[in-house]
Amino acid sequence: MSRSRLTLRTLRKLYTNGQALLQARQYEAAIDVFRRVAAAGLRDARAVEMAAGAASNGREGSALASYPANPLYVKASLGLSFCCVEQGKLDEAISTLQSVMSVEPDNVEALCELGYIYGLRGMRDASLDAFRRAVDSHPECAKAHKALGYYYL
């Protein structure tokens, strides 16, 4: 199936399959599925088409930027990063999370996962910064508060 033929319905099915593989701890297979979903694009096809129409009407500039990130891209990227951590592929996990952060800078799941990975790497300051950002943007995030509490002990 080529990238251009992946419909939103197909992407949803793939994402669900990736989640099932993750739950079954079949991380390599889940990584392959999440990569396919994430590779389908940051923006969904409809947003790209609408932005192209706006550009043809002389409103290019930030036409595409005005559409939110494809939620499946973000979810698949988060799933991919989790699987990468489980497989010891920390560089790929960090890169994937940084990609999520580029479109959703206050994504609490990405911030907490980055904090965790930086902690694994012994990068205490970067880990603390990620968890602080998570708490600042989502004060209700128990995971980030717990992690910060751990560091402050």
Write the SSE topology:
Blueprint: H1 8-23, H2 27-39, H3 45-56, H4 71-86, H5 90-103, H6 108-120, H7 124-137, H8 142-152
Helix pairs in contact: 1-2, 1-4, 2-4, 4-5, 4-6, 5-6, 6-7, 7-8
Number of strands: 0
Helical percent range? over 70%
Largest sheet features = none
β-strand percent reads under 5%
Described by the principal axes of the CA atoms, the overall outline is globular
Kindly name the structural category: mainly alpha
Number of helices: 8
The string of secondary-structure elements, in order, is HHHHHHHH
pLDDT < 50 runs, ≥5 residues: 48-52, 59-67
Structure characterization notes:
The chain is mainly α. 71% of the residues lie in helices and 0% in strands. It has eight helices and no strands. The radius of gyration is 17 Å and the shape is globular. The N and C termini lie far apart (52 Å).
Provide a short characterization of the protein structure:
The chain has 153 residues and is mainly α. It has helices at 8-23, 27-39, 45-56, 71-86, 90-103, 108-120, 124-137, 142-152. Helices cover 71% and strands 0% of the residues.
List keywords for this structure.
single chain; 153 residues; mainly alpha; 71% helix; globular
